[in-house]
Amino acid sequence: MAGKKKLEHFAEMKVFPHAFEPELDEVFRTDYKMKGNWRKDFFKNDSPLVVEFGCGKGEYSVGMGRKFPDKNFIGVDIKGARMWRGAKTAEEENLKNIAFLRTRIEFIEGCFAENEVDEIWITFPDPQMKDRREKKRLTGPLFIDRYKKFLKPDGIIHLKTDSDFFYEFSVEECLNNGYEVLFKTDNLYKEGIQNFDTDFQEILNIKTHYEQIFTEKGHNIHYLRFRPNGG
After folding, report:
1. Distance (Å) of CA 11 to CA 22, 79, 88, 162
2. Vertex 184: Cα angle to 68 and 48 (nearest 5)
3. Dihedral angle sign, alpha carbons of residues 170, 173, 178, 181
4. What CATH number is associated with residue 69?
5. Long-range contact list for 69-72, CB < 8 A, 24+ apart?
6. pLDDT tens-place values along the chain, 231 residues long
7. HSE-up (13 A, CA, CB side) for residue 100
8. Structural domain count of the chain
9. Cβ–Cβ under 8 Å, residues 103 and 76
10. Cα–Cα distance between 202 and 154 in angstroms, integer?
11. Sign of the CA dihedral with 21 first, then 25, 28, and 31 last
């Protein structure tokens, strides 16, 4: 039954007008047709563009889309069966400012143009703790350098994680790769969240599926806010 449901979700993703699934040859060594055209061709506006990497079930993309109808949101992940939940919710609630992009983040440079993205969220990624997996870490040198290629100079990147290892690694990589750390805390809900206004506290209080699991187990949630130096 689970397998049948998964196939149904994959099929539905293919007909959602707000779900994009480029073929490998559309992003590998070339540019996807939507690169530089997300506002013009899909959202039909000039509003800020916020991208969530490793969006899972899309809790952040959907939650932010509800709160900020004057911004555009794109959730990115390779797990189509998970992403279906966010895409389905966006359809049911008629949220026109949310899209989903199913692709490997290794190919993300082919999906967004220079200065196209205003803000990035990285929510509870796999910390990839083994040394041989370092290149897979979403704040590792391979990715953190790519973000500069499509993030606006004053654009902000947000990271939430329960992993002490990944949080400390990310802070170090920011400093080593020309980013300015704007705010960091290793215990967001105890001592960090009160530093922000009510609207942003509401955003920080959105919990992904994995964050809900981690907080119920008593894990501290770490938050890091950073931007390219000079932004």
Report:
1. 15, 14, 12, 33
2. 25
3. positive
4. 3.40.50.150
5. 69/97, 71/47, 71/97, 71/118, 72/38, 72/39, 72/43, 72/45, 72/47, 72/48, 72/97, 72/98, 72/99
6. 556 788 788 788 888 999 999 998 899 889 999 999 999 999 999 999 999 999 999 999 999 999 999 999 999 999 888 899 999 999 999 999 999 999 999 999 999 999 999 999 999 999 998 888 888 999 998 899 999 999 999 999 999 999 999 999 999 999 999 999 999 999 999 888 998 999 999 999 999 888 999 899 999 999 999 999 866
7. 33
8. 1
9. yes
10. 23
11. negative
Name the β-bridge partners of 180: 227
CB 221 within 8 A of CB 215: yes
Nearest to 183 by CA among 214, 149, 156, 220: 156
Burial of 130 (0-12, 13-18, 19+ CB in 10 A): exposed
Domain coverage including residue 202: 2-228
Phi, psi angle pair for 132, to nearest 5°: -70, -10
The Cα diameter of the chain in Å comes to 53
Task: Give the bridge partners for 46, in sequence order.
Answer: none
d(CA 72, CA 46): 9
Catalytic residues: 126
pLDDT given for residue 2 in this prediction? 58
Residue bearing tokens 């040198």: 141
pTM of this prediction?
0.94
Q: How far is CA 26 from CA 21, 22, 109, 180, in A?
A: 10, 6, 12, 33
